[in-house]
Structures are given as structure tokens and as C-alpha cells.
Amino acid sequence: MIKNEHKKHYDITIVGGGLAGRLMLAVIINCGAFDEKKLCWINTDNENFRDVRVSFINYKNFIKMKKNILFNISSKDYSVIDKIELHNTNEKYPLKLHDLNNHGIIIRNDILKKNIKFSEKKVNIYKSKVISTRFDAFKRYLFLNDGTEIKSALVISADGNLSPLRELCKIKYFNNKLDHTIITGYLECKNFENSTAKQIFLKDNFIGLLPLKNEKNLINFVWSVDNKILNTNRIDYHNQIIQMLNKFFFKDKLIFNLPRSKEDKFKRVQTYPINVKFVNKPFKERIILIGDAAHTIHPLAGQGFNLSIEDCFDMVKCLKNAKFVGRDFGTLSLLKTYNNMRKTRKNFITLATTLIFYVFSKKNDQLNDIINFNIEKIEKTSLKDIFKFLAKGY
Ligand SMILES: Cc1cc2nc3c(=O)[nH]c(=O)nc-3n(C[C@H](O)[C@H](O)[C@H](O)COP(=O)(O)OP(=O)(O)OC[C@H]3O[C@@H](n4cnc5c(N)ncnc54)[C@H](O)[C@@H]3O)c2cc1C
After folding, report:
1. Nearest CA to 278 among 262, 289, 264?
2. For tag attachment on the chain, is the N or C end more exposed, with fewer CB atoms within 10 Å?
3. From the CA of 289, how far away is ligand 1's center (Å)?
4. Is the CATH number 3.40.50.2300 carried by domain 7-392?
């Protein structure tokens, strides 16, 4: 019989070299319960590409990562956020959320990725894209572009918002176009407190402002803009956002400028279309989706990767239980148990962020007044805790 050299057999295969795929592998390897030689990682990402966006990581998830993976990150590399301010058009004052510990941290994605460490020595890594898949009673098969065939008891797919594997496996999902575009980049602002993150809800524009610690006075912005505005005005993004922010924060004497940094990476802006994707059952025979493939949400509360961190830790709990009783990793009951663990929080965050998006994007002057009136009331009540819950992760 001719042995097919391109056929490889594994216990667990992880697809995707983004934040979710990398973290999943790091959590599995660092828990020490699995044979690394039986793990496979399909990572087609270019290691030289630097994603200079930033992520807000909530307190609980940051602690979990620090405890469980080789996450030897320097405090120089992240800002600790102990105050979140929510601003609205014509506000008297913002809703201020303080936290005795802190809400979480802000870190650049490239620094975060570099610090999600694990020993890659024994893991089998493939650099070619998955182009098709099938399954039988015992394995899922992945066919790569370079002709390799991978056989695995379980595939964990972190292949992003567009998730080719979700399509190939015909996993159903709701897709809701939000008719907004996300624009992200950097600005400079001198008096911006390093420990405060701000979210501003203007008409047709939502802006998240996230301070960086190690780069002087640099603020990352995540600007969600109505496509109607974007399409009719072909504008200089930096100029437009600076004008809006300087007008809004005139009362607080905050002045925003173009970044003076010589580094090109801080001068660029990136744009992303934004759809909400809700996957009720993110699994099929011997495959489970995690990360953006399983839930894509609006970034206004900075919770997309936070959900993925929780995915990784809950998945490893299920895998460890299966290993303990000697059960096959790809059984439907394991995938269902995992989904039951994840669904309350995934549903809550998807619903909360989508509701916030619609309330603020559809508001007229009257609704705006009602929002401001209630923000003043919320400021004095424990209802504030709902927002803290959103930000902090519990
Ligand atoms: C502007 C912006 C700001 C954000 N801010 C925050 C924040 O502050 N906090 C937060 O928690 N979240 C935030 N998010 C969300 C967060 O960035 C995402 O949730 C996270 O990056 C998703 O990671 P992922 O690994 O699931 O997907 P991706 O990063 O998209 O990775 C997908 C991977 O799959 C691979 N892949 C795709 N197809 C194939 C294939 N056929 N074969 C093999 N590999 C394949 C790709 O090469 C890639 O490596 C933000 C998002 C945006 C757009």
C-alpha cells in the first residue's frame, strides 16, 4: 500500500493565526495536559505584519491570561483603566464609571500577540489555507491549498469574521449589516488622562478614545461612522475627527492634534466594514468555532476579543474534562457542553452592544434629551453597575 505522505493525524487542530487562534493554542499548551505532538496549528499569517490597533482587555480576562499562559508582559506596555466616561450629544456631564480595582487594560494588538507565548517546538504548524473539509464518524478532514490533508478528532476554528470554515461546514448564522464603517488610527492629546477611556456618542458618529501608556500623549481612536456620511463626504479622516473632538471637548479644554510621531504606523488609518454575526450553534460534526467566527459584534464596548478569551478558557475546561475520563475530544456532547457554557455571556454581550448601537444611531433630539436625563439619574443609582458589568466582564 502506498503511504500518503501528505496525510497527517492529530487530536486537536486549531485554524487561524489571529488573536483567538494563537491564544487558544497557548492555553492548551500551557495547561500541560495535552500531548503537543498531537496538536496542529494552521497559521497562514505573515509574522512581519504588525497590527497596531489596540484592545481593551477587561480586568478579569487580563488576570486569567497572566495566571495561565506565559504572559510576561511589562507594565510599560499597557495602560491601566480605572475610569470609563460615556459622553452624549448635549450632555450636562458624562456618565463616569469608576472601579476600585480597575476596569481593565489597554494594549496594542502587536504587543499583545508577541506576548502570547508558548513553545512552538513540538506543535505541527502548517502555513497553507484550508480550502475544503469533510468528516466521518471518527475524524474531521481538512484539505489545505498546498495539497496537505489533515485528519483530526476535533477542529477548533478561529478563522475570523468571514470564517471560510463556517461556510464550508454550512453552520447557520444571522448576519446584520449595521451600515456603519469603523475607522481607526491615532491622535495626540496633551491633557488626556492615561487611566481614562472615553466613549462618545455623537449623531451618526460614535468614537472610542483609548490612551496608550508608552507612547507620549497618543490616543487610539475607534470611530464608527454612518455610511451615508462616509459616502457623501470623501474626507480627510484625521481632519474630520479632530474637528469633531475639539468642538465636543472645548468645554474640558482637551485639544486633539495629528500624531507627531515619526513612526508611519501611528499616522495610518484603517477602515473596517461592520456586521453583527450571531451564531446560535457554532458547531457541526467535530468542529467548533471560536473568536470572531463564532460572534462578531460592534467594537463600541471593546468586547470582541474579550469574548474570545473566555471562549479559549472555557474550551480548555471541556477538553481537560474529556481527557480526564478518556473521552474522544470531538464528541457532540462535548461541543454542546461548551456551547452551553458560552451562550449566556455571548448572547448578553451581542444583545447589549447591538442595542446600544441602535439606541444611539437612531436617536432624534427628543430621545437624546431622554438619554441625557436618564444618564443624570443613572449617575446616582446602582444601574451604573450594568455598564460596569459590560466593561469589566462580570
Ligand atoms: C477597530 C477595532 C477595534 C477593536 N477593539 C477591541 C477591543 O478594544 N477589545 C476587544 O476585546 N475587542 C476589540 N475588537 C475586536 C477584536 O479585534 C476581534 O474580536 C479579534 O481581533 C478577532 O480575532 P480572531 O482571531 O477571532 O479573528 P482574526 O483576527 O480575523 O483572525 C482570523 C484568522 O483566521 C485565518 N484564516 C482565515 N481563513 C482561513 C483559512 N481558509 N485557512 C486558514 N486560516 C484562515 C486568518 O489568516 C487569521 O489568522 C476590535 C475590533 C476592531 C475592528
Report:
1. 289
2. N
3. 13
4. no
pLDDT at 1 over 80: no
Q: Measuring from atom 52 of ligand 1, which residue has the nearest CA? A: 299
CA dihedral angle for residue 346, residue 82, residue 272, residue 166, rounded to 10 degrees: -20
Q: Which of 93, 92, 174, 177 is nearest to 361 (CA)?
A: 177
Residue nearest to atom 37 of ligand 1 (CA): 159
Average per-residue pLDDT in the chain? 90
For the Cβ of 17 lying below 6 angstroms from any atom of ligand 1, the answer is: yes
Ligand 1 pocket, residue 209 CB under 6 Å: no
Q: Which of 81-85, 94-98, 351-355 has the lowest mean pLDDT?
A: 94-98
CA atoms of 202 and 182, how far apart (whole Å):
15
C-alpha cell at 331: 464528541
State how far the alpha carbon of 374 is from the alpha carbons of 243, 282, 377, in Å.
Answer: 28, 37, 5
Task: Delimit the domains of the chain by residue range.
Answer: 7-392
CA distance 186 to 216: 12
Widest CA span in the chain:
79
User: Per-residue pLDDT for 362 more than 80?
Assistant: no
Distances (CA, A) of 351 to 111, 193, 257, 297, 367: 30, 30, 35, 9, 20
Give per-residue pLDDT as tens, 366-379: 877 887 777 777 76
Ligand 1, atom 15, residue with closest C-alpha = 304
